[in-house]
Amino acid sequence: MTTNKIMNVCFGATSNQSDKKFYTQHGILVFSTNENGEERISLKLTSLPIDADFQGWFSIFPPKDKSNKAADAAIDDVEF
After folding, report:
1. Which of 20, 29, 34, 51 would suit a FRET pair with 10, their CA atoms being 20 to 30 Å apart?
2. What is the pLDDT of residues 12-40, one digit of tens each?
């Protein structure tokens, strides 16, 4: 049995207009275990940041839950 855990690979840059840091996703990191119980880590980069402050460091975050339960509830309450 193979199990996978997927994490987002992101770069954080500070906005010129504020001190808030913004993260952009540049790939995924996959943690998996194969049938023999061996642990594997795979990295897939889909892009590289073009930023003067980029020095090769990324941050790893769990994926955000894309389901918006509040919006779904509002749609369900609409009467026809």
Report:
1. 34
2. 998 888 888 899 999 999 999 988 889 99
SS (H, E, C) the chain: CCEEEEEEEEEEEECCCCCCEEEEEEEEEEEEECCCCCEEEEEEECCCCCCCCCCCCCEEECCCCCCCHHHHHHHHCCCC
Considering the entire predicted model, what is its pTM?
Answer: 0.71
Closest by CA position to 10, among listed 22, 20, 25 = 25
Bridge-based pairing of strands 59-61 and 39-45 is unpaired
Length of the chain: 80
Domain positions in the chain: 3-76
